[in-house]
């Protein structure tokens, strides 16, 4: 056991020095506090623009439809174009298409023409018939070229025109003579070949009205409109970054029973944005501006639909009522959410916590009054506040104490 310090005839124990140190520090604090001049601020009316930036997922109400057959496709509508229910959207040419059917049909129709021309008086062949014949020959040649080169984009238009020309020619010739058994047989053969060609071609129609898109990412059923009510931050992280499927051959190949196109409902759509260290105090129902970051920044007004907070991160879901057509084939994007706040503004250090409640100390003459407040927005230097309760003690130009 160590020996105590002896001063004069008194034995001084160690606890005496502890007490002495605490007394000196207490005096120093009292002297420093009394010597330090208090700092004050003023309640002002101001505004503050705050911004949060983060990754976001686009959420839409959309339905996916499958291709009924394998084959090549000609699109009749553009990406994002509005379509009505039962409107043609694409023509699918089956993989088992036989090119010789087109030639057989042409040969039969040539036989019909030749027979009709041989059995009517030459002088009644008029210029209208000659014009139609030239157009038929040109159209058939165009069909042969596009089928040979597998350039089927305009094939449907050529076929429709060819059928129209055949009908016009038949109408002219039927006025000149009545069909006999030989001609009747040729007509039946022509009809059968037309039927086979129609079986080879499948016209796809829109099952419902909406905006059509041929860009798919496999999350259409997962991230539908109902997802906004239950999506979590963990869900967001697992979905973000999923790219839109790259369809082979520019999307001109269809595979049976595989997703082929989708119909997106216009109107309400959403983005779910993940934010770390948010500056904005998000409140459901309030309006915000959302800027979509890209080569061309696009800003749309939206409404905060839902807020999810987990471990210092915030998932903000914003609802929109316009411009879904601009994001019909986008899923993972980057956005900036901004909000302009207005109201009573004080220095940020004037907001203190007392008994677990935030407030400010208002100085009136020689007394201080603690007024509970809610911080609506803060940028670290200033804070927009609203008074809690109904006492209405907070006034413009009031003097507030700033804690340093």
TrEMBL record:
Chain ranges of the RND related alpha-helical hairpin domain: 100-199
Domain RND related barrel-sandwich hybrid: 62-264
Keywords: Coiled coil, Membrane, Transmembrane, Transmembrane helix
InterPro entries attached to this UniProt entry: Beta-barrel_RND-rel, BSH_RND-rel, HH_RND-rel
Coiled-coil residues: 155-203
Domain RND related beta-barrel: 269-339
Record-annotated membrane-spanning stretches: 12-31
Name the UniProt record assigns to this protein: Putative membrane fusion protein
Organism, as annotated: Caldicoprobacter faecalis
């Amino acid at each position: 056991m160590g020996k105590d310090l002896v001063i004069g005839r008194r034995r001084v124990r160690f606890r005496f020095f502890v007490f002495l140190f605490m007394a000196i520090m207490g005096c120093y604090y009292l002297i420093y506090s009394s010597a330090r001049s208090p700092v004050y601020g003023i309640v002002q009316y101001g505004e503050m623009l705050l911004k949060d930036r983060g990754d976001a997922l686009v959420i839409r109400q959309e339905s996916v439809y499958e291709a009924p057959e394998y084959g090549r496709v000609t699109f009749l509508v553009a990406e994002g174009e509005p379509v009505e229910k039962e409107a043609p959207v694409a023509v699918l040419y089956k993989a088992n298409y036989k090119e010789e059917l087109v030639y057989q049909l042409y040969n039969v129709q040539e036989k019909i023409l030749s027979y009709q021309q041989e059995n009517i008086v030459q002088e009644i062949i008029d210029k209208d018939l000659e014009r139609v014949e030239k157009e038929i020959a040109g159209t058939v040649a165009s069909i042969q070229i596009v089928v040979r080169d597998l350039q089927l984009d305009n094939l449907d238009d050529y076929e429709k025109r060819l059928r129209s020309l055949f009908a016009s020619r038949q109408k002219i010739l039927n006025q000149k003579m009545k069909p006999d058994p030989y001609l009747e047989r040729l007509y039946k053969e022509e009809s059968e070949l037309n039927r086979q060609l129609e079986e080879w071609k499948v016209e796809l129609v829109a099952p419902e009205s909406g905006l059509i898109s041929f860009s798919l990412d496999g999350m259409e059923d997962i991230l539908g409109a109902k997802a906004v009510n239950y999506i979590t931050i963990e869900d967001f992280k697992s979905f973000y970054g999923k790219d839109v499927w790259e369809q082979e051959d520019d999307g001109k190949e269809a595979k049976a029973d595989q997703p082929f196109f989708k119909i997106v409902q216009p109107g309400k759509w959403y983005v779910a944005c993940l934010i770390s260290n948010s500056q904005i105090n998000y409140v459901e129902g309030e309006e915000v501006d959302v800027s979509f970051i890209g080569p061309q920044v696009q800003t749309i007004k939206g409404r905060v639909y839902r807020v999810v907070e987990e471990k210092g991160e915030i998932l903000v879901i914003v609802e929109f009522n316009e411009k879904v057509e601009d994001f019909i084939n986008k899923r993972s994007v980057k956005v900036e959410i901004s909000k302009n706040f207005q109201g009573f503004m004080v220095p940020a250090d004037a907001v203190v916590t007392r008994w677990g409640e935030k407030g400010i100390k208002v100085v009136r003459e020689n007394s201080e009054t603690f007024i509970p407040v809610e911080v609506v927005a803060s940028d670290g230097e200033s804070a927009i506040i609203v008074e809690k309760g109904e006492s209405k003690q907070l006034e413009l130009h009031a003097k507030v104490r700033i804690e340093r």
